[in-house]
Amino acid sequence: MTDTTVKPYDVAIIGGGIVGLATALELGKREGISIVVLEAEDRLANHQTGNNSGVVHSGLYYKPGSLKAIMCAAGREDMYRFAEEHGIAHDRCGKVVVATNASQIPKLEELERRGRENGLDGMERIGPEQIAEREPHVKGVDGLFVPQTGIIDYRQVTEKYGELFEAQGHEVRLNSRVTGVNVGADLITLETVSGEVQARNIVNCAGLQSDRVARMCGVDPGLQIVPFRGEYYELVPEKHHLCRTLIYPVPDPRFPFLGVHFTRMIHGGVEAGPNAVLAFKREGYKHSDISIPDMLTYGTYGGFWKMAWKALICYVPRG
Description:
With 319 residues, this protein is α/β, with parallel strands linked by helices. The chain is 29% helix and 24% strand. It folds into 2 domains: 9-50 and 155-216, FAD/NAD(P)-binding domain, CATH 3.50.50.60; 92-150 and 226-315, D-Amino Acid Oxidase, subunit A, domain 2 (D-Amino Acid Oxidase, Chain A, domain 2).
């Protein structure tokens, strides 16, 4: 008789974005284990991975010696090497950080110090004339050129990760949203819309749904995801030439973002933004994307109101 019993996987990874597939590809190098990636949508990288500006960050802003700075530098170079090896669209175009008035120069100097301590060799301090040489349509009193910054297609990266992962002999299941988790003594049973999956271990890489998946597993993460959407303007095609690299302002330390910047896109076009606005759905990429249950969830979350109060204080005019 043929044994038709479905064997459990050693590892099930929930989420088919770049984090999930990078995790899968690395775990897949181990001998003798079986791994499955469960992705809710009908393609990989359909959410955050496929809805960002595609920037390869240099590590300019991070505290020298911090884990974030170290990981950013190592990951940046690994990403460029991977793109070269597999023919993935990318461009190490660099970026210009521009001070528009003298009061911003001390902050620019601090950025330069951090960048040099973080190993950004080839970084250049540039004055008004050099700014104009690199970006003829930009005016500033001082600037910093960071050659390590680039742009890439992260969806292509993730899809290639998926190909390599399957070539290792493992499995990617699309259209397999996890709806329930039963943690047993030896096995974990995952209920998905495409059927039941059993595994000895699971890795939660569910992105915007990761807090909910954690709770399905009986783990309280002590926090809740509140969705914000980055909104951008796009330059009309006849104005694309106005931006040669990436153009950033000197960031304002009062705010938890880098300010409005111009970003060349790897497949053409230039975006100006972002403006961060509260989304009315976890995966709310358009104004018309609305989920009443999602809104009720964060509307009754105390952490949301604490964040809102801090944001209000930041934006109240002073003096």
